[in-house]
Write a structure and sequence with these properties.
alpha/beta; 11% strand; 65% helix; four-stranded antiparallel beta sheet; Rossmann fold; 2 domains; six-stranded mixed beta sheet; ABC transporter transmembrane region fold
Length: 585
């Protein structure tokens, strides 16, 4: 399947999300604003006093008067420095706390995503959003936002001071900044789309590289190296073009802004000189206004330097916030399942661009029943298991649990009813205990050991620190069977009502697999189990056996009844036992 991009939040959604983050730490945000305002006010004293000094010297003021005003300038400069520094400190703390909220929300939303959404999007997009985009948002919250906030307050106060000195000089300063205004509008009209395209291109690169690394052995076995190299080159080239587009925007934006800084100062000096010649304004006012407008270049420069960061971060924030929209796309069930009975009625399903792999399946799974789903490779067993587990929804027909569509249950509700266990497994960094507590955070050691014993993971007792032994990189290296036993132990601890095993013991040797399945059967007595496997001893132990062929359910009955019918199941059983019809010893 071609990966689908996860949704991207719109500007209004991003603005609302930003507002929620600010309200969550409103007092710190208000403190940052207040301190910035005080720092900006303190910074206005210096240029104003310089103008006073010029006027007083013209009037014959003495050295003592100048020294006193110079001392006041020094005091207010120091106050401005201290206030701005503390405001920046509070701003960084605010940014770190807000970033923590963004990260926690991202993890919550990622875990709440339906599995089908994650699979169709591909791991690359989700990985890029959780790493590059979240890091970009963090940089903005920690550095860019406080800097821009300080700069905006300073610029506002400085222009206010120029207008108080002389409204005409203030107008000259604003007119001189029209070049910056044009540059910003030009840049903002193009930047969001360009940075969103760059983020999507980066996700595509991550997806291609992740898929190549994960499937390295398959690629080598089938000689697909050239295809993967070509796909990687195409993705990297698309990423390069997207990055070049944002670079082109910056190469126009920044030079224009740099030139525009000089224009308002020149305008004030020229116009102020003319007004001074006609006696309209004093020399001190002209000097103070020029100093103010020269001073305003620093906060404006800070704002302009971060505009690019803010646009990039805004695009990243839109991608991070888009995860919430992805979680809301799945239809939510209005009702609670009445019981654990699963009904499949006329279910049909096909993957994008392919033929139907499940075709008109009807099946009822009663609570507490053991059903074995068997059939040749490609018969549709795994796809049916995904429909039963709510990972995919049928394109026609229905799959319900307790009368409610399985795919419409929210992830938390779904996990209480159905859990799908495949031969894919994961060992998390940490201890054995950490890996088990994921499924049951409140479980005691006795429960953890019982779960391990239930799946035959006796090897844990031989580890140096038992449950506290670190696993993964730098710790105990688990092989395939041990990793799968840890995954099955988590299922035991999760205690689902219905368990679907899709080749769940495929990586275990036959003896260990048989022991694990029997142990699971005893632990899960009274619960519904649907086992999908090629090892037909699972079918021998089941209450009923469902046989799939070419997407259809062709046989359904007990092991003995299907053997007696001498149909497809009997042929599979005979083939598995090398031509004999007897049950396994």
């Amino acid at each position: 399947m071609t990966p689908r991009q996860l949704p991207v939040a719109g500007p209004r959604e991003v603005a609302r999300a930003g507002g929620r983050l600010v309200r969550a730490d409103r007092w710190a945000f208000a403190g940052v604003l207040g301190l910035n305002a005080l720092a900006a006010a303190a910074g206005l004293v210096g240029p104003w006093l310089v103008g006073r000094i010029v006027d007083d010297v013209q009037k014959g003021a003495g050295v003592g008067d100048v020294d006193r005003m110079a001392l006041v300038i020094l005091v207010f400069s120091a106050a401005q420095f201290l206030l701005a520094r503390y405001a920046r400190y509070l701003g960084h703390r605010f940014g770190e706390r807000t970033l923590a909220r963004v990260r926690e929300q991202f993890v919550d939303r990622a875990l709440a995503l339906p599995a089908s959404v994650v699979e169709r999007a591909g791991s690359g997009d989700l990985t890029a959003r959780g790493t590059t985009d979240v890091a970009m948002v963090g940089t903005t919250l920690r550095d860019a936002a406080p800097e821009v906030l300080i700069a905006m307050v300073q610029a506002l106060f400085i222009f206010g001071a120029v207008f108080l000195l002389d409204p005409l000089l203030g107008c000259c300063g604003l007119v001189g900044l029209l070049g910056i205004s044009w540059s910003v509008r030009w840049y903002l009209r193009r930047a969001r789309a360009a940075y969103l395209a760059e983020g999507a291109a980066n996700s595509a690169v991550t997806e291609v590289l992740t898929a190549t690394v994960t499937g390295a052995r398959t690629i080598e076995a089938f000689g697909l190296q050239e295809r993967r190299v070509a796909a990687s080159r195409d993705a990297i080239e698309s990423s390069r073009r997207a990055r070049t587009r944002t670079l082109d925007l910056r190469s126009v934006f920044f030079p224009t802004v740099e030139v525009s800084y000089v224009v308002p100062v020149v305008a004030v000096l020229v116009v102020g000189g003319m007004l001074r010649a006609h006696g309209v304004v004093g020399l001190g006012a002209v000097v103070s206004a020029a100093l103010y407008l020269r001073q305003v270049s620093e906060p404006l420069d800070s704002i302009m330097m971060w505009v690019e960061q803010l646009q990039s971060s805004s695009a990243s924030f839109a991608r991070v916030e888009g995860l919430g929209a992805a979680a809301r796309q799945a239809p939510a069930a209005a009702d609670t399942p009445a019981d654990d009975r699963i009904d499949v009625v006329g279910a049909r399903f096909s993957y994008e661009g392919g033929r139907e792999v499940v075709r008109g399946v009807d099946l009822t799974v009663r609570p507490g029943e053991r059903i074995a789903l068997v059939g040749p490779s490609g018969a549709g067993k795994t796809t049916l298991s995904r429909l039963l587990a709510g990972i995919d929804a049928p394109h026609a027909g229905s799959v319900t649990v307790g009368g409610v569509p399985v795919a419409a249950l929210d992830p938390e509700q779904l996990r209480r009813h159905v859990v799908l266990v495949t031969q894919e497994h994961h060992v998390f960094l940490g201890t054995v205990r950490d890996n088990l507590l994921i499924a049951a955070p409140a479980a005691q050691d006795a429960e953890l050991l019982a779960a391990l014993a239930a799946v035959g993971a006796d090897w844990v007792e031989d580890l140096p620190a038992g449950l506290d032994t670190a696993v993964g990189d730098g710790g105990h290296r688990t092989d395939g069977s041990q990793a799968q036993q840890l995954a099955l132990a988590r299922v035991v601890l999760a205690d689902p009502h219905t368990l679907i095993l899709d080749e769940a013991t495929a990586l275990l040797d036959p003896t260990t697999a048989r022991h694990t399945e029997r142990a699971l059967a005893s632990v899960l007595r009274g619960r519904t189990v649907i086992a999908i496997a090629h090892r037909l001893h699972t079918a021998h132990d089941a209450d009923r056996v469902a046989v799939m062929e070419d997407g259809r359910l062709t046989e359904l009955g007990s092991h003995d009844a299907l053997l007696a019918a001498r149909g497809t199941y009997a042929s599979l059983w005979s083939s598995w036992h090398g031509g004999t019809d007897g049950a396994p010893a």
